[in-house]
């Protein structure tokens, strides 16, 4: 069931919103010896756009449908061709007890061949696509912590068996300080038999994000291709990715992420025409392209799909470009949010992100992580997201925090952002407004909840600010002093001034807007969900008893006890963007 599998894809990537893993501890900083770049200086010899690293030839060939797993093997082996596998009746208990080793059916994974064949799920036409002969080489970087042996090896074999040999410079397995014994000497010995595979054992837990940087730092290929440690690369997966990077070194190419069932290990294709997007507050998800758009623009199943954000795990990026972008923000911890960071950075600083439908890689989506977080999982992800928001979102931070006010509490603990902000400056990146307008125009959330004149219908007067005090005047649409906005953080704002109640008085005054001041937040319309008769009121969020009231006597604004009967407490903005 395709739509179901997509639904679960989204659900699982969003699971940080639901799962509360309370593991405690501290993540230690990286040591110098590790060679992790925490300075955001691009390395020397960065090739410029206009001077390609090597002479280019325009010779082309059809994608090589390499599948070395096709040589003699048992067609009846369990899971062959990506077929579902059932656990025998007498093994149910074993299968169940082994589930938590990986949070998928580890018993079945161990049963099926490490180099099983899977269905070639590429859209028709992909096999005839032309690819340049002089593609750049790539280093494959697979970070893992406590990955199940069979899934890790199946990932490696799928790369070795389904990629043209000359394009793979190396496969770097970055062991993020795993605890399982088989991932130590046994792994080192085993990979000696495999061509091109190296293991980098990190001396302490880096977290996925800094582990990727550590892998990149020792990579020697022209392109970095990141993969998760429980994937199966499908036929012809690599060349289309490298082709896109070859054409434009600032293009970051992602394969279609297909689904390897956590339950029966079957390989399932996914619906075409899906873009990687986000919903507020920066949750990753998939969004189907509109059929009208597909028809209007004559988009075929083979065409690359521009994505506002990438899922995070699987992509190819030119190595020098990755460093020009400052890699990932090294201040991001463990897991999560790094896909938002790199996506905003790529788009806003002159690059692009595409899903390449002719490249397909299966991935086991799991309901839980088989590894622990040094700190609480949700807190880790949320802190990362706040870091990203503070560097990249500009005015849109208002929407971000408006969709999760609890995120504000991380602000004191997100660490120093100077280098990230300098990087944005140095790369002369465009602003977030440009990004939304050009890359994610269908984002759909207006920047403000309401704007324009703020009137009291009973008095037929509008609120205005004259010489820093409130006055009630006849409404004049083009008068600046009568313009207010109602924001996602529930501020009522004119410029950078926000309305606040004056304590112990029944008046209201102005104060520079500040996300952290609770008294600046007012409920209005749908924000007042508990009392329908107060929907036209403007009620203080922190008390639920104070409302803004027009005072005909003084001709100004007061803040008094809310009552549904008081008509002077009813307000209307000129224009509601969200009711
Ligand atoms: C998705 C991405 C994942 C990453 C994540 C957000 C896909 C298919 N997956 O979650 O790559 O972008 O979103 O951060 O797009 N790992 C470590 N050290 C750690 C934690 C994880 O090495 O401290 C490894 C882990 O073994 C795995 C990879 O990082 O190979 C990604 O972790 P995951 O599979 O738990 O993440 P996933 O697929 O839910
Ligand atoms: Mn994964």
Low-confidence runs (pLDDT<50, min 5 residues)? 1-51
Structural shape: elongated
Cα-atom Rg, whole angstroms? 28 Å
* Annotation field: number of helices: 14
Instruction: State the total count of DSSP E strands.
Output: 26
Biggest sheet features? 8 strands, antiparallel
Report the sheet-strand fraction. Answer: 15-25%
Give every kind of bound small molecule, once each: uridine-diphosphate-N-acetylgalactosamine, manganese (II) ion
Straight-line N-to-C gap: 36 Å
- Global structural class: alpha+beta
* Percent helix range: 10-25%
What is the typical, i.e. mean, pLDDT? 91
Describe the structure in brief.
The protein is of the alpha+beta class and 579 residues long. It contains 14 helices and 26 strands.
Kindly describe this structure.
The chain has 579 residues and is of the alpha+beta class. Helices cover 23% and strands 23% of the residues. The protein contains 14 helices and 26 strands. It has helices at residues 2-13, 92-98, 106-111, 149-162, 185-192, 207-218, 238-247, 291-296, 319-324, 338-348, 377-392, 397-402, 418-426, 432-439, and strands at 60-62, 130-132, 138-144, 168-175, 197-201, 223-227, 231-233, 251-260, 267-268, 274-279, 283-288, 305-306, 315-318, 352-364, 450-456, 461-466, 469-473, 483-486, 492-494, 497-501, 508-512, 522-523, 539-540, 546-551, 556-561, 572-576. The strands form 7 sheets. Strands 15, 16, 17, 18, 19, 20, 21 and 26 form an 8-stranded antiparallel sheet that branches. β20 and β21 form a beta hairpin. α10 packs parallel to α11 (377-392). The structure holds uridine-diphosphate-N-acetylgalactosamine (UD2) and manganese (II) ion (MN). Manganese (II) ion (MN) binds at residues 228, 230, 313, 363. Belongs to the glycosyltransferase 2 family. GalNAc-T subfamily. Residues 449-574 form the Ricin B lectin domain. Residues 38-96 are annotated as: Disordered.
């Amino acid at each position: 069931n395709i739509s179901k599998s997509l639904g679960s894809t989204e659900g699982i990537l969003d699971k940080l919103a639901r799962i509360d893993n309370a593991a405690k501890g501290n993540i230690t900083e990286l040591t110098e010896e590790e060679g992790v770049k925490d300075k955001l200086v691009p390395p020397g010899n960065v090739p410029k756009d206009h001077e390609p690293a090597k002479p280019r030839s325009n010779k082309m060939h059809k994608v090589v449908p390499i599948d070395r797993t096709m040589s003699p093997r048992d067609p009846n082996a369990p899971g062959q061709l990506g077929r579902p596998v059932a656990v025998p009746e007498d093994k149910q208990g074993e299968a169940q007890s082994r589930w938590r080793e990986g949070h998928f059916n580890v018993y079945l994974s161990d049963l099926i061949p490490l180099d099983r064949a899977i269905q070639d799920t590429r859209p028709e036409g992909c096999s005839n696509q032309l690819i340049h002969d002089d593609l750049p080489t790539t280093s494959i970087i697979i970070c893992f912590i406590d990955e199940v042996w069979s899934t890790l090896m199946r990932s490696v074999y799928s790369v070795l068996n389904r990629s043209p040999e000359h394009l793979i410079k190396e496969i770097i397995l970055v062991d993020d300080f795993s605890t399982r014994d088989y991932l130590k000497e046994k792994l080192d010995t085993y990979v000696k038999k495999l061509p091109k595979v190296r293991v980098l054992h990190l001396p302490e837990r880096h977290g996925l994000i800094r582990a990727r940087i550590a892998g990149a730092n020792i990579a020697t290929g022209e392109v970095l291709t990141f993969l998760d440690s429980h994937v199966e690369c499908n036929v012809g997966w690599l060349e289309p990715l490298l082709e896109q990077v070859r054409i434009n070194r600032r293009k970051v190419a992602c394969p279609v992420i297909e689904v390897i069932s956590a339950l029966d290990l079957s390989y399932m294709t996914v619906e075409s025409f899906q873009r990687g997007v986000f919903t507020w507050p920066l949750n990753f998800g998939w969004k189907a392209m509109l059929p009208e758009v597909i028809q209007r623009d004559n988009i075929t199943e083979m065409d690359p799909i521009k994505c506002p954000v990438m899922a995070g795990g699987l992509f190819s990026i030119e190595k020098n470009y990755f460093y020009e972008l400052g890699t990932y923000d090294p201040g991001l911890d463990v897991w999560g949010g790094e896909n938002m960071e790199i996506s905003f950075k790529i788009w806003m600083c002159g690059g692009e992100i595409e899903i390449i439908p002719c490249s397909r890689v299966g991935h086991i989506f799991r309901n839980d992580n088989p590894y622990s977080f040094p700190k609480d999982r949700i807190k880790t992800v949320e802190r990362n997201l706040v870091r990203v928001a503070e560097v990249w979102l500009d005015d849109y931070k208002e929407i971000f925090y408006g969709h999760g006010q609890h995120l504000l509490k991380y602000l004191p603990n997100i660490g120093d952002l100077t280098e990230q902000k300098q990087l944005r400056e140095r790369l002369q990146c465009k602003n977030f407004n440009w990004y939304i307008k050009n890359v994610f125009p269908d984002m759909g959330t207006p920047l403000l909840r309401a704007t324009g004149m703020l009137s009291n219908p009973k008095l037929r007067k509008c609120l205005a600010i004259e010489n820093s005090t409130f006055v009630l005047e006849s409404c004049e649409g083009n008068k600046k002093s009568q313009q207010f906005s109602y924001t996602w953080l529930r501020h009522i704002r004119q410029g950078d001034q926000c309305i606040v109640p004056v304590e112990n008085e029944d008046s209201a005054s102005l104060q520079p807007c500040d996300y952290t001041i609770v008294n600046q937040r007012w409920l209005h319309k749908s924000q007042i969900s508990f009392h329908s008769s107060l929907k036209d009121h403007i009620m203080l969020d922190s008390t639920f008893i104070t409302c803004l009231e027009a005072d005909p006597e003084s001709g100004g604004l007061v803040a008094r006890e809310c009552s549904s009967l008081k008509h002077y407490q009813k307000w209307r903005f000129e224009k509601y963007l969200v009711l």
